[in-house]
């Protein structure tokens, strides 16, 4: 695995990639305020038959951020250009986490080389109310040390949060400089608002499913960031293919990378006829 950069308009996009890309490629798109290193556990899956390429979105990881407050539309534009320049005419599978699902779906609509999208704890249409929006927005845009810790804790569930509740880890998170999460909250304020713009999210899914259905969602009933009971109506409406991992919270790659990898690996083996 190596890190490279590419210039896309005014942005310098940093990305992780296997030293050499084989014939089967997975494009990994990380979630809200995260970075390409979220894919490290996938990179370390020894028996994978696919190569991985994983960019940092603008404002994340080692990529630049020349728009100050990036938007979903901007991320979609960047990923479309990234694919055109780094993977021209290549057949691609996309693996996303959370927010990264939206650029994944948008790219699939405009690029016929996208074979399938796997959304891990994906951002989906759902029926939120003002109270749940306010609570989750506070987690995404914390303004105090306590809110910052809460935002990290809520990524997990009662089956995988034992490490983050230990006093040493909790104190380390609480001691994070305020400048870090304050600046982060300013940078991602527009994205956080758009995540709860259900008209926007519903339209993206409606556009996608009006033309194709090559999408699988890994979901958990214990995901505290995105309550999938509120998305159930839309899962049924679009007949979304799902795989439940109910022993994880929103941070599914923390505990369940191997289950996710095995599912994707086997799917690709069947799809590519590699029996």
From TrEMBL:
MF annotations from Gene Ontology: carboxylic ester hydrolase activity
Matches recorded under SUPFAM superfamilies: alpha/beta-Hydrolases
Alphabetized UniProt keyword annotations: Hydrolase, Serine esterase
Keyword rRNA-binding: no
Domain of life from the UniProt record: Bacteria
Residues covered by the AB hydrolase-1 domain: 25-256
Gene Ontology cellular-component terms listed: membrane
Classification via PANTHER family: HYDROLASE, PUTATIVE (AFU_ORTHOLOGUE AFUA_2G14860)-RELATED, MONOACYLGLYCEROL LIPASE
Family affiliation: Belongs to the lipase/esterase LIP3/BchO family.
Name under which the protein is recorded: Esterase/lipase
Species this protein is from: Mycoplasmopsis californica HAZ160_1
Lineage of producing organism: Bacteria, Bacillati, Mycoplasmatota, Mycoplasmoidales, Metamycoplasmataceae
């Amino acid at each position: 695995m190596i890190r490279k950069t590419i210039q896309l308009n005014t942005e310098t996009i940093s990305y992780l990639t296997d030293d050499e890309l084989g014939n089967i490629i997975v494009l990994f798109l990380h979630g809200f305020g995260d970075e390409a290193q979220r894919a490290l556990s996938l990179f370390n899956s020894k028996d994978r038959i696919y190569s991985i390429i994983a960019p940092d979105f603008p404002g994340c990881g080692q990529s630049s951020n020349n728009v100050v407050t990036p938007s979903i539309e901007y991320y979609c534009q960047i990923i479309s250009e990234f694919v055109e320049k780094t993977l021209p005419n290549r057949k691609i599978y996309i693996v996303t986490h959370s927010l990264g699902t939206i650029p994944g779906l948008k790219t699939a609509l405009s690029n016929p080389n996208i074979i399938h999208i796997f959304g891990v704890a994906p951002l989906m249409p759902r029926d939120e109310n003002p109270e749940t929006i306010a609570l989750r927005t506070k987690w995404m845009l914390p303004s105090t040390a306590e809110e910052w810790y809460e935002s990290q804790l809520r990524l997990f569930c009662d089956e995988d949060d034992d490490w983050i509740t230990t006093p040493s880890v909790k104190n380390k998170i609480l001691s994070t400089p305020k400048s870090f999460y304050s600046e982060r909250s300013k940078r991602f304020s527009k994205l956080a608002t758009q995540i709860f713009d259900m008209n926007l999210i519903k339209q993206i899914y409606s556009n996608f499913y009006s033309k194709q259905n090559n999408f699988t969602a890994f979901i958990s009933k214990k995901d505290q960031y995105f309550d999938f009971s509120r998305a159930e109506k839309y899962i049924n409406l679009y007949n979304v293919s799902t795989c439940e991992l109910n022993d994880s919270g929103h941070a599914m790659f923390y505990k369940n990378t191997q289950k996710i990898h095995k599912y994707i690996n086997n799917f690709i083996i069947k799809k590519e006829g590699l029996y």
